[in-house]
Description:
Blueprint: E1 15-16, E2 23-24, H1 39-43, H2 50-61, E3 68-72, E4 75-79, E5 83-89, E6 94-100, E7 114-116, E8 119-126, H3 134-146
Amino acid sequence: MLRRRRGQNDGVAAWVCPKCERRFAREGQSHECAPAMSLEEYFSTGPERERPIFEAVMCHLDTVGTVHVEPVSVGIFLKRARSFAQLRPLTQWVALSFSLRRPVTHRTITRKVQPYGARYHHVANLRSPDDLDDQLLGWLTEAYLDSPPDSDEES
């Protein structure tokens, strides 16, 4: 079950798994078949720093476009027709991952940027919402805009 944020809708992807009712870009897409949680369920067990970081990310994305929020046991997936970013809680920070067509550097990106096909996978380690500066938010916007729109956005 999902809490809708301003600008969200149900038309995010082409296929809904009949077992877990999660949405995916491709029919029969491989996944860990576990239903999404509500945001309240998800945040009830995580570290306190996680929700303010999520809210800061969503405050920015609400100005960019439609986002489907999918909380699962390992983190929160942010989707259009497919995932364009993820927030995953770790011991000392929240990992914000996103892919771009080019590698970028930032003080919060401490892991090696990994090429994946024609894209580069980035992970920014966020200790608080203050780590989300204009540069990171710009890259998050870029990742969003570079992700295919869902069917409702195309009309």
